[in-house]
Amino acid sequence: MKLCVIGTGYVGLVAGTCLADMGNIVVCVDNNQDKISKLQSGIIPIYEPGLEELIKNNVKEKRLSFSTDLAKAVRESSVCFIAVATPQDIDGSCNLDAVINVAKEIAHNINEYKVIVNKSTVPVGTAEKLSNIIKEITNVPFDVVSNPEFLKQGAAIDDFLSPDRVIIGSDSDKASKIMNDIYSPYFKTSNRIIFMDVKSAEMTKYVANAFLATKISFINEMANICEKVGADIEKVRIGISTDNRIGDKFLFPGIGFGGSCFPKDISALITVAKKITPEARCLKLLKKQI
Length: 290
Ligand SMILES: NC(=O)c1ccc[n+]([C@@H]2O[C@H](COP(=O)([O-])OP(=O)(O)OC[C@H]3O[C@@H](n4cnc5c(N)ncnc54)[C@H](O)[C@@H]3O)[C@@H](O)[C@H]2O)c1
Fold this sequence. Notes:
The chain has helices at 10-21, 33-40, 51-60, 70-76, 97-109, 126-137, 156-161, 173-183, 198-229, 233-241, 262-276, 281-287, and strands at residues 2-6, 25-29, 64-67, 79-82, 114-118, 142-146, 166-169, 193-196. The protein is α/β, with parallel strands linked by helices. It folds into two domains: 2-196, 3-Layer(aba) Sandwich (Rossmann fold), CATH 3.40.50.720; 204-287, N-(1-d-carboxylethyl)-l-norvaline Dehydrogenase, domain 2 (Orthogonal Bundle), CATH 1.10.1040.10. It has a six-stranded parallel beta sheet with strand order 3-2-1-4-5-6, sandwiched between helices. A two-stranded parallel ribbon has the order 7-8. Strand 7, helix 8 (173-183) and strand 8 (193-196) form a beta-alpha-beta unit. Helix 1 (10-21) crosses helix 3 and helix 9 packs across helix 11. The model has no long low-confidence stretch (mean pLDDT 95). The chain binds nicotinamide-adenine-dinucleotide.
């Protein structure tokens, strides 16, 4: 299948490379000329174990290329992935400027039916917003799909090639079938592509990040109590994490969570929840964490 990935940052570069590695013809697009020139000459802007070799192999096999020409990439692709940044705005909400700009550029260049796949982390309702923006510009048919990304920096290639699950939010059978064709090669034994409506997929990403962050904050709170009462948090951690219902991930006490996603995603979730259900008790819990 011919695909383009718009936004060749952490997510876009890893996704584009791994999609090419499954036999798709992929062009990774970015409006940063310097980044694209470097990639075209074999300089990889980020370090991820296995990424450089995978890029080189797929470029050599002519399945992967890099470009600043979004118009051409859109015209020649049946599926367009959006993987641009969605930073935190001053009021704590998610800034959608880059996603909206890309949607408009796709709309101006769409020439036949396309699946437009949003990989950026965006608040619930964004796919609908993008659909409406595109429909104002063009009559060419398209579907917008939500396909949130769950990769971990440092293990991004493994996460993409052997995912726990892939979430596809789609309200169109045609688009769902195309997404199934793209992702089923990643599941050799059991198929863990989870199809749902678009809004549920958008929420899944935020709920997953909020839950993981809460686990970290929770164990840190418990570590403080343990210290005061003379208990050993390490022993308590082992004691609880051997319970299958609890599990052993994200339960190491430390300095708290950080990184490029948890704080901004929790802040965006709070902004959405405050508008809809300001009395929600979980809001207090989430607010305390950022
Ligand atoms: N980094 C992670 O670990 C991670 C994990 C899961 C999800 N996400 C989400 O994925 C999305 C992308 O994150 P990232 O870390 O890859 O961002 P990034 O900042 O590394 O990359 C974004 C890229 O998009 C490019 N871009 C911006 N506007 C463009 C346009 N109009 N046309 C073409 N290119 C454009 C930028 O030049 C940049 O190279 C975000 O929503 C983020 O929350 C990130």
